[in-house]
Design goal:
- It contains five helices and nine strands; from the N terminus they run αβαβααβββββββα.
- The chain starts with 48 loop residues before the first helix and ends in a 6-residue tail after the last helix.
- The chain is α+β, with helices and mostly antiparallel strands and 233 residues long.
- The longest helix has 9 residues.
- A hairpin with a 4-residue loop joins strand 6 and strand 7.
């Protein structure tokens, strides 16, 4: 398997001129897409297998996941303009007390979410959920990550927790290609800790945005590639 990466470095410092930006209090600004404050939720009982290997706690946004239900008003019809797809979000927290979010953590968070085929109901075309979930593999083929802001270092934000939101709109041939747009946000506290302070949402901002394309392949493809010796003398 080949991996190609292009890195463009910057310092995210203000330029010699100032441009008005969309602050958190402006009505056109993007707001934190997760519903609950981290202190109001607990760790997921069931979590992805990779989260244990990465020493990561998760807490899914249950209210947002309901938007994927078949009978939710956001489902599309022949009269719908735009819309469609699935959404997902969760708070992520590094398990070890000495851990903290760093720059190299962000691409990992951008690639750690539930793909569109998994979020589709069992009876929907293209679904790999339910009983079929473990027999499919969704490898990421392309991913771009844009850092929007510096990782926070203030009392208004947790240094071990982030909010991750994703939306996916398309699932097409060949190989069940599907897209995802992922946002990584600051968090005001750790999961299950802290207090809900008035205006806490105004303090949160997006750290990075990622766009990616993934495939839907039988798990045998993954297992077969994992057993092939590609070592060359």
């Amino acid at each position: 398997m080949a991996l190609n990466a292009h890195l463009i470095f910057g310092n995210l410092l203000s330029g010699s001129w100032q441009v008005e930006c969309l602050g958190s209090t402006i009505s056109y600004s993007r707001r934190l897409p997760l519903h609950p404050h981290p202190s109001q939720v607990s760790y997921d009982v069931t979590k992805p297998s990779w989260s244990g290997r990465m020493d990561l706690h998760t807490s899914s946004d249950v209210a947002l996941l309901k938007r994927n239900d078949p009978d939710n008003p956001v489902r599309t019809t022949s009269k719908t303009i735009g819309g469609g797809g699935t959404e997902w979000a969760a708070w992520y927290e590094l398990s070890h007390k000495d851990d903290e979010i760093i720059t190299s953590s962000i691409p990992f968070f951008c690639d750690s979410f539930l793909n569109l085929p998994i979020l589709l109901p069992d009876n929907e075309a293209g679904s790999t959920a339910g009983k079929r979930r473990r027999v499919f593999w969704h490898p990421t083929i392309t991913m771009t990550v844009e850092f929007k802001a510096r990782i926070p270092s203030s009392d208004h934000h947790s240094d071990r927790t982030v909010g991750v939101y994703s939306e996916s709109r398309f699932l097409t041939d060949p190989y069940g290609r599907h897209n995802a747009r992922v946002e990584v946000w600051t968090a005001p506290s750790r999961i299950g800790q802290g207090d809900v302070v008035e205006g806490w949402r105004d303090e949160q901002y997006c750290i990075a945005v990622a766009d990616q394309m993934a495939l839907t392949l039988p798990i045998e493809v993954n297992l077969r590639k994992g057993t092939v010796d590609t070592t060359k003398l």
